[in-house]
## 1
Amino acid sequence: MVDLEKAKIVVSRFKDIEGGLLECLHAIQHSFGYIPKETLDIMADGFNISRAEVHGVVSYYHDFKTKQSGRKTVRVCQAEACQAMGSRTLTDHIKKKLKLDLGETDEKGDYSLEAVYCFGNCSLSPNVEVDGKLHARVSSDDFDTLISTGAE
Amino acid sequence: MALIKEIDYGTPEKKSENTVELTIDGKTAYVPEGTSIMRAAREIDAEIPSLCATDCMNEYGSCRLCLVEIDGVRGTPASCTTPVAQHMNVKTTSDRLTKIRRGIMELYISDHPDEDGPLHDMAELVGLKENRYGKEGHNHLKTIIDDSNPYFSFDASKCILCARCVRACEEVQGTFALTVDGRGFDSKISAGSDQSFLASDCVSCGACVQACPTDSLFEKRTAEIGKPDHSVVTTCAYCGVGCGFKAELKEGEVVRMMPWKDGQANHGHSCVKGRFAWDYAIHKDRILSPMIRDNITDPWKKVGWDEAIEVAAQRLMDIQRKHGIKSIGGITSSRCTNEEVFVVQKLIRAAFQNNNVDTCARVCHSPTGYGLRETLGTSAGTQTFDSVMDADVLVVIGANPTDAHPVFASQMKRRLREGAKLIVIDPRKTGLVKSPHIQADYHLPLLPGTNVAMINAIAHVVMTEGLMDQKYIDERCDTEAFKQWHDFIVDPVNSPQSVEKYTGVSADDIRAAARLYATGGNAAIYYGLGVTEHSQGSTMVIGMANLAMATGNIGFSGTGVNPLRGQNNVQGSCDMGSFPHELPGYRPVSDDVVRGSFEREWGVSIDETPGYRIPGMFDAAVEGKYKAMYIQGEDVAQSDPNTHHVEAALGALDCLIVQDLFLNETARFAHVFFPGTSFLEKDGTFTNAERRISRVRPVMDAVTGMDEWEISCRLGRAMGYDMAYNSASEIMDEIARLTPTFTNVSFDLLDQKGSVQWPCNEKAPEGTPIMHIDGFVRGKGNFIITEYVPTTERTTRKFPLILTTGRILSQYNVGAQTRRTKNNIWHDKDVLDIHPHDAETRGIVAGDMVMIQSRMGETVLEARITERMQPGVVYTTFHMPESGANIITTENSDWATECPEYKVTAVQVRPTNHKSEWQEEFEKFSISTRHIAE
């Protein structure tokens, strides 16, 4: 069950700020780990816009999740500079290691794997982000260490 | 008439005092400053291809087809988003432009390779001959069609993401039900949060379907029948907005109803009823043959017109011989044309020789007629609809326009989104109180029955705080009447604190709303049946007129006192003299001069004493003094209050003649049935809430073989009075001859101008959009004292809740039409709305069957728990006959006009597991009285 009261409190913090919807969506995602469908109407009501409008914003930004993510989120850069430095091989390795395809979450809810197109850290390619922390010049071995030690 | 193709200028019309001169393809154009190049070009017939632009919404600039070249400007700007400039020189065609357009078009086509539809017409227009990309690769051809809406489908594979549908839903309709989902190649149009159209907030107004340039959104019926080949411009027969429509036909069969851009009430917009729910007109339930029977339990016998009319006339004359001239009468219909109504009241006055004529306005807006005439001098609203675009403060009292007058509600919402302020005075949290991008500045949720206390308190604040417009009052109003009213209104009994105990609304809110109304600029009052259907309905109308006069809010654009009329021709049926005391044009039947003019024209003498009103007819029938009725298109057995009494009255008649499309509830008690014509068969005029007279043109031949006015004329002739016309326009000519406010009206004028607003005479040859401009019609504005007298219908321990009634968007009134359309998908039964608190204390959960009891009767409905209600007030609609909403309503009525007090009934509500006795009986009786012998 989604705690709608919690969502209402979050919405009340942002609803009177001009353009507050984006901030509110971040806060909802922070609270719930994703943007539960049940919270759309609360946001629509709070900002006095339509459910469709909220959905339009949520679906536009890849960073807004509409499903519960894994406990850890791994994001691998797929953009040109990282590709030139071997991110394709790294991505294949990570897929095998986590037994996940890009955009998937495992059944136990341990990991989510996502593609990213540039972290803005091209000079230190390839880049991987684990739970919000960026790691540069990551090799397959580095990744295994990252995961096994929980060094993130 | 061939198929009407309206010109799409691409971007909206701009208003400016400055004119800009520019050259487009060597031709000179003069347009108001701010106009787009696209519009300027299309106004001088220069063709610019485009997909995302349409003139009912703001420029968007996404399709990139409308590029032009401008001297001295780099690149190729989009003509839709580039405003004109003085002496600009524009080229709309060149090799460079053609190349770019073809390139862009080819990209569109690469995603839509199937060669049909309007997109390919556009491709042809820009000269694209082939699609080099083929059908391989990524495209959207395999998307699933959304078929959920009963009237239209959405096929995303044809969509080019121009967002015209999204913008139409936002800018034109104001519902915001659509959005663009996702981004890039994955983006698609989504209803709600990726829901089906039916499950979303979509109200099925049709604006998106009309806006779609690629037929992604398309009407199912058009897909079935095929493209229409000709159009007939006519007027919608649902609510009092009176939208203009183009009926589009293929080989004589109606394909669709398209809102007419030149319709002055709707400007090309529509709602689900007018746009889609018209096919009741071709429903199998329609009765096509006249029928007679001796007793109401006998089966109906189909007969020819001659026999039916002869039988009806004989019975009426027999009854008059036996029971006197005044023992018969009739009711005119606000659903019929002015011409049909005029002829029925003429029949009653000239052939029946009495004044026993009334109309269904009796039960809706009769207090409007009374109140506005007594104060301002005219029994009609003061403004034209477009005046709302100049209003700074909108006050909506006892009206729910988003459901009952949807097209005007869209216009109101547009003005509100532009920044106008909004005050809603209504017991319920209606759609206008809060909806996307609309929020009332003040919602005063008063208890039903306390309108007058509320309006007095508002006026009290205005007068005691010096917020009135004294100059206006001195110049335009009766100063003696004003003085008396002033002394009354400033009395502390009318202060916000004093009335708090009646209205339940805080004094602070009342004060704030009053200040906003008086000082916020142009203030316009819009009201509905929540004002009129009360024991003090007329008093409230007067109270609003007093307030508007005191603040100088009548006689200008953006102001006024505006009734939102419920039915298509309720204004017209009142104008046409459907009252027992008034001849056409609201002139007393007791006035010798007025009567004389009709007597000379009609060649008869007219009774000078007023006849029965509808409630009087029922009372007299129960008493046995009133024996026969001719009811034109009105279902009194369902619509009028206190059903038990109405049924007793109808059951007591010796002869009831019903003229209708269907065997309605009233027809269960009838002895003669004349099949009527639908608006698609009628030739005549309707008059809407803004006094606008619009033409209703026959789209198909009368399926009954007889125009309704002809039925009335033949009945008159069979009774010995010679009345005959060759056409409906002859009837209008007679109306114009006899009615000073209609002197200039003729079908010729209407055909030429599209529509006119009365008064339309030598003083105002082209009609009068806004009334009382240079002073009030009655001379000086008349302030009348409006003392608050609480209704006798009060809550008690036995009946602790107040029931109020209203309408919903998808159904219309008694539902005779809309119940016979696919609109039932949205509303197939009436439910009782109840606040969670009231439900909980009674052990009611959502979906429970509940018994609603008043002192008049009881009925059973399903409960819906909602916070739109305030505690202590319950609400239902009355669209379904088996709901029996009017079993519970009482005999109370407005003191001046006998308009029933539908809006206040003290009730108790409790869970139940069976239907009411009346409902059980209703089902049996309903079948046994509707049998037709083959």
## 2
Amino acid sequence: MKEAPRVVGRGLITLLVASFVIYLALSLAPGDPATALAGNRATPEQVETLRQQLGLDRPVVVRYAAWLAASLHGDLGRSLQFRQDTASLIEPRLGVTFLLVGYAFLLILVFGIGLGLLPSVRSWLSWPVVVVTALGISIPAFVAAMILIQVFALNLGWFPVLGTSNGDLRDQLWHLTLPAIALAISWVAYVGQITRASVREQAGKEHVDTARGRGLAPRAIFSKHVLRNAAIPIITISGLALAALVAGSIVVETAFGIGGIGSLLVTSVLAKDYDVVLAISMIFVLAFVVATTVADLALVALDPRLRSKMSA
Amino acid sequence: MVALAVSVTALSACSSSGGSATPSGSAASTPAIALLTDTPKAKGPIDSLVWDLPFGEPTSIDYIYAADYSPDMVVSNICEPLLRLNSDFTYGPNLATSWTYGPDKLTLTFELRSDVTFWDGKPLTSEDAAYSLLRNMNPDLASYSATFYANVKAIEATGPHQLTVTFTKPDELFVKEMATVAGVVVEKAFVEKTGKDFGNATGGVMCSGPFKFDAWNAGKNILLSANPSYWNPDGKALPQKVEIRFVTDTTALTQALKTGEIDGAYEIAPGQLPALEASTTGKVYQGKSLQVIELVPNAPGPAADEKIRQALSMVIDRAALAQTIYHGAADANYTLLPPGAWDPTATDAYQKAYSAFEKPMDLSAAKALIAGNSNAATPMTLAIAAGNQTQIETGALIQQLAAQIGLTIKIKPMQPLEFSSAFYDPNARKGLDLLLTQGFLDVPDPLDYLGYIVFKDSLYNWTGYQNPEVEALVTEARSIFDDPSRAEKIIAAQALYEPAQVIIPMLSLRELLYMNNRITGATASFAYIFQPSLASVGSAS
């Protein structure tokens, strides 16, 4: 693992740059958090006093530096709108978002890859898979959410309308099924297409023909020569999918009334709640960095050629 | 969330605005159904209740930071003010059994109950009460209710269960506010112990209400349970457990109400009314309310011109607005003071004065009023809250109506924070000519509302309107404790300020409550916001 420090360093730089850009962008958005915080009966003088108390009258770079220094010491600051420590505000919401994203990712792996492999098992399924995946890709998550709620919650009554549960893990998964499907649906289709194309391409390669000519068993050819090579684009796209799911959770959480960090990010951005926006954004960026890094490492493990390139 | 918040108390008679005139000729202004104050009484307790807050998760449940739908509702179910606001907007005893003014009206003495304990068993004393009320006056805390304490000189515990408030000048409004979150009493020791976390999801609160605060799971729910040692045997909570949810998406909420995943909610969006009225699992109740929809004009620009404001007001088809966009869940309103804000013992006088302003939409008169006026040629910008479907439709209708007399209106949707900033910061509302807003009065008393608007320096007077006579009348009225005499002053002021259209009134809203068929008993009127409104919710059969 010679490349570990480089990978970590790259991640840290990404976080640093992203945090500054987000802080700056948020400060440029219209609206003043002090006015909302002062309440709807406050005089302009009271608002001004509050602005000074909160340090919102300082230049943005100074405020960013103060935020950075505090975060490096593990202090994520305080929510302006909830008058509460950011960490205690985010922590209880992390679980449900991670569960939702994990569930959706599992669906993508199982059904996306499964769908893509179908044509290689039964060749007459090739055409239906192309149609289904093309349709799936074009369904936005919020549309999927509306349709799923109408059909499976209201008409059939199989699943609840809302994604929030007070029960055990099983009950939570039951509540999160429709949200996870809504979140995963276009990625299932995408991964399905990539898998199908990739397997097809590999199956036509010379070394596979050679293997066939040598009389190797079809099953062995498929797993050793086709699948192994086809896995490379699938893993890359899955890493991207995982990162995108975290961001996509924002829409789905709102549609199903789930109080995760996605929906908190929306209200925090609207309220210009700096510390909370930054903390959640950093979680999103971190998720992206980790997901793509893991995908990279998996590729290295799979493809010896990459290994030599990276250490070079 | 922008709310022109105000306060008053007792109104029993009239929230259905007179109904003598038929403003546009298209729809009667009289409500088709009688507006409720209560729903049918519950038959018995229930194990659990799931309730939603359509305005979303409260940002705090500290009573001094409650001035909006969600925090007000949660605070009022767990914490208690000195007086109680009844469903018909009258007020009566609660933690205080009596309240007596000194001869000069400069002192007000509350006798408190001696049998009230906080959830932790500690007795509620006048010390707690004085401490709780004084928090509203602490400039470092910046209480949202500070304005109601403007005329207060001192608040002291003058006996173990006696509290005395001294005023710098007589203030008839103060005692009425003691029936809202502005008069809430919490445990002093608990506030001091929790410090800056008092009232947030980590620290919680310590009060004496019919529900105990159990937990606030950030982003998910607030959990309450019945307080077994509640002092008032008639007010004990019927639901043993309550889960308060924060679903804001109107479609998701409607669906969850229909399936019964959520039992009930106040503040149903008018747009969802048809869908919920068709529901077979529950029912919509329309109650009396103190909420209004209005346009706040901003200078400079055409809206600074009184004639333009008058002409615009004349073309707004209030009845059509109420029928088509609010699905009948609103009533036309023609004055700054909605009929719901009138003092109950002086409604006849107010009604008589109101009738003079209740005029049908008049295109030709409006056209004539601004003929040749150079300001009429300048386009105006109307700010609305982005993403609020009702406001988008309302804005479009106003735009269309104004075009009929040659006024051009451009709609500008604004994000919530940008929009709320525009209400408090003159720089943030630069370039805007009109702001569409929904506000509410806390209690039915015209005075508090007028204070926000008709004075030269009022928070919502952005057109530079100034009339010393109006200011003198309104100031004098605040020291008059007799309702009919006070009404005379207010009506005299109204005759002066109303033609100026400092604010363009449009609608009085009705409270929209939905309850599943399995339950009943919730307060139907807007008074729910300052009551333990869920305590009376129980089994329907």
